Amino acid sequence: MLETLETLRELLGTVNDRNRMQLLSTSGVLVSACDEGGQCPSCRGPWRVQKTAYHRGKTIRHGEFEIRETIHVCSDRCRDESGKLVIRRAQSLAKHIVPGRTVGYDVMTFVGLERFLHHRQREEIRTSLLREHGINLSTGAISNLAKLFLRYVQALHNKHMGQLQNALAKDGGWPLNIDATGEDGRGTLLVAFTGWRKWVLGSWKIPTECTEAILPRLHEVVGQFGAPCAVMRDLGRAVTPAVNHLLAELELDIPVLACHLHFLKDIGKDLLNPAHGELRALFRRYKIQPKLRTLSRDLGRKLGSQIGEARKEVKAWQAQTETDYAIPSGRAGMATIRSLAQWVIDYKADSTGCDYPFARPYLDLYDRCTTARRAIDAFMRNEPNDPKVRSALKRLQRLLDPVASDVPFKQIVRRLRTRAQLFDELRDALRLEPKPPSIHMERNAEEVPTSDQMATELQDIHEQVKKLVASLKKRRPQRGPAQDVRSAIDLILRHIENHGGYLWGHVIHLPEEAGGGIRLVERTNNILEGFFHGMKHDERRRSGRKILTQDFEHLPPEAALVYNLRCSDYVSIVCGSLDRLHEAFANIDLGKEEEMNVKERIPHVETASLPTVDRRIIRTDQMQRRISAAAKSRAPHVRS
Fold first, then answer.
1. DSSP secondary-structure letter at 133?
2. 85 alpha-carbon distance from chain centroid
3. Which ranges of 405-548 would DSSP assign to H, the alpha helix?
4. DSSP secondary structure, 29-62, as one string
């Protein structure tokens, strides 16, 4: 009976979809498009009919229909610069249909927004168009329209560049955030971002993150939007000289700021990597984690189907308040020892959720191993009577014995703790959260600090760093056995000396025409890092792939500009509202290629040493045959 109801509902749904399609369908309706009057823009002469063309049209507003278009040509046969006859298409049609295509601007806009703003797959977009608007397109047409949408977004951005620049100037300037991202060394995407408005000003695909590739893009942004009031960058070896060269060539005197988070991470990795790497190698050499997992699995198999009851007995043992430190016998004892091993394996629970070097996972593993080993000593004073339980407990003790030894674990841990303490002192002085709060967390208005309060806090942070530097110099051992402490302090002081000049200068004094006062640039490049993280998250959600190597290799750079459509101030400038985006596209004449590319774009470059297109070429039988034949041939003698 239930199966019958299910089948009936499916049939009703199918009928409902068909009826909806029939109601929305305007297929077969013939529309005549013919504009009269007017003059040729070249000779001011009259138009005459050249031909009448029949084709189809598809728009969300009108549905699918047939078009009879009258095309006019200059009566004096004028030609444009390319040598083609000057013709006039029906303007009433050009407002709705993309030139050279059968679909309307609103269809293209719908596809583009769904693909790059809502990150839906092609089949999802196709189904939505068919069910909601009665428009049937192939998946290939969806892909082509999505690419065309990006061309229009770029053209719209270029068309309103002057208005965008004026909006930035009214703010009193704009800080430039510059960074690049990629996936597995491919699809490197460089983005110029303005930190105050949160707009993408430019995006490019570059072959690799190098100074020669970044510097021309920086010139392009400055030429379009004027000089920024500050530059926020990371400590990369490519972007640092690129920014310095830009300012030197343009003779600009603006603050160049280094991201505090990158600065802190670089010091932390240089400071902790040696000892933390040695500790990781020791754990792998003694195979502590694999052996603990094997013990846990063995005990789980022995418990078998009784594991559910055994877990309840472990909870009862945990609830005991006695201090005899005894392991129960039987099934409860085996489950308790299994839980002890699992507690050690779960060392990542001690992490604060931050990445290395703010979290030191192998130091957490060491602490759990030593704590469990001391607990086992207490349990062994009151040995379990059950021989199987006693044997399992001794097995766990033997697994943890190497970690409790003075050599080599304790010596490395001692060095690591000393260096970690120095790193934490610097982190406290910078008052930097390694993981920023979620952008979805809201604050009350009274909790948001003013610019003056933030400037005062920044000055306090600067003073704290100065005091730490003085303290480190005072504490630095001049001689003796404390060589590692001396090296660690020297490393921190060297980083501060090299990058200290780029850590301060975040207070920007606004001109009087912008209202005066001050405004602060963010201390980190997290805003752009978060933008990249969001892009990758969106692409993973769309594709279902964790590794985005091919996705980023084929993703056009203009996709980053689409994110500006989430900014209401940007949308109001370029099109008024998203509902009118297709109208703004219709005002862009795609009939001339030069108008589609207002600014000169740097030609596309490959971003990988072995891109997909080249892989198809080199994997052919012909390529293998030519190389094999050349390799087997007798090479000619070359005279010097």
1. H
2. 48
3. 411-430, 451-475, 483-499, 526-543
4. -EEEE-------TTT-PPEEEEEEEEEEEEETTT
* Phi/psi-derived region of residue 104, left when phi > 0, alpha when psi is between -120 and 50, beta in every other case: beta
pTM over 0.70? The answer is: yes
Give residues with Cβ within 8 angstroms of 489, minimum separation 6: 422, 472, 473, 475, 476
599 pLDDT more than 90? no
pLDDT at residue 443 above 50? no
Phi/psi at 405 (nearest 5 deg)? -75, 150
pLDDT band at 172 (very low <50, low <70, confident <90, very high): very high
- Residue 434 CA: distances (Å) to CA of 265, 293, 299, 437, 469: 9, 31, 39, 10, 21
Q: Residue 591 has what pLDDT? A: 43
57 - beta bridge partners?
Answer: 65
Q: State whether residue 69 is helix, strand or coil.
A: strand
| Spatial distance between the Cα atoms of 357 and 632, rounded to a whole number of angstroms | 53
What is the spatial distance between Cα 488 and Cα 504, in angstroms, rounded to a whole number?
A: 24
pLDDT of 640:
47
Q: What pLDDT, on the 0 to 100 scale, is given for residue 7? A: 65
Going along the chain from its start, the domains and CATH numbers come out as 2-156 (no CATH), 164-255+522-566 (3.30.420.10), 260-434+458-504 (no CATH)
What whole-number distance in Å separates Cα of residue 537 and Cα of residue 182?
Answer: 13
Does residue 270 contact residue 491 with C-beta atoms inside 8 Å?
yes
> Phi then psi for 510, rounded to 5 degrees?
-80, 145
Phi, psi at 637, each rounded to 5°: -75, 130
Least confident of 77-86, 245-254, 264-273, 286-295: 77-86
CB 65 within 8 Å of CB 56: yes
Non-local (6+) Cβ contacts of 554 within 8 A are: 187, 612
Going 104 to 105 to 109 to 110, the CA torsion angle's sign is negative
